[in-house]
Design brief:
five-stranded parallel β-sheet, glutamine amidotransferase, globular, binds 6-O-phosphono-alpha-D-glucopyranose, glutamine-fructose-6-phosphate transaminase (isomerizing) activity, alpha/beta, 12 strands
Amino acid sequence: SRSGKGGYPFYMEKEIMEQPQVIAETILPRIKDGKPDFSEEGIPDQILKDCKRICVIACGTAMHAGLVGKSLIQAMIGIHVDVVMASEFMYNDPVVNKDTLVIAISQSGETIDTLEALKFARKCGSPSISVVNVKGASIARASEYVIYTNAGPEIAVASTKAYTTQLAVLYLITARMAMARGLWEEERLLSFMNELQRVPQVMAKVLDTKEEIHRLAGVILNAQDVFMIGRGLDYSILLEGSLKLKEVSYIHSEAYASGELKHGTIALITEDTPVVAVVTQDKLKSKEISNIREVQSRGARVVLLIKENETLDEGEQWSCVYRLPKMDDPFMVMPASIVLQLIAYFVSLDKGLDVDKPRNLAKVVTVE
Ligand code: G6P
């Protein structure tokens, strides 16, 4: 039945469509006079100011959100960020201490690996903030401070709106950290926050093109293997886009950092292999395009996601291009992520699969 699904056939589609609204609900209460504000959460600037490094602990999709956070914080704050899979945390003799700010990210707030890693870090004296969707969950209670993602209940097993609201919180943390450290001029802070507030409307614009994305998904529908390539932030979101596709469509997909392809699996890219390429960062564009040429010359069918204003050379086979609405580069992951979610969704839908309940996956994992 479609009841509870807002008229959509699956929760996943409903939850994808809700993103403009839930992103707004996540950011707006934390903006005062145009600036990031965690006074409701009681987070003292001191812990954002004093930490020498950051350790993000999370699993699955939440871990992928952490990778975007790492790029943002390293680029804008200039401190080192580790993103650690919570299930591996204990097995690598973790080095965390009072100078390490721990950020635990979890939709459910109940993932046992994340909870245990967080508890260990706290014992080592690390200050901690959790980013959790479910109110009052164990991870929220086990951390010193909590910032809730206001995504609302996420029912589809494959996470969508929880991921993008986690990203939204990471932008807020980055901005507050820059403020606490006195790193940015007022003007830069306000313009960053303005761009963040534009995310919901830009996402809505992408959602309006759902049928165009549905057609792009057709390139992947009958594939055995898919590759997704990009660098930097583009690579981070492709890890998530690729996981999403695997989870709901059972198609084997690998996200590969474009520059690493030639050191690894480029031999697997042959005639008609679908390759999803994301190009959103000005400083990476020329290198990414040349990597795309490499796979095209091996016969790959490239689905390219690129900013609306970018020019592409004539005479190439750019048959599948999606034009992303333009934002400042650090924010391009937001519209691009929605396209990747919808590609995964439509492939699963068109295969006639049970999109919301992929086999063998659980929404909440409370065993180690
Ligand atoms: C499970 C879910 C994933 C999720 C991961 C972490 O494996 O199937 O979608 O990303 O757990 O869950 P959490 O609730 O901690 O974000």
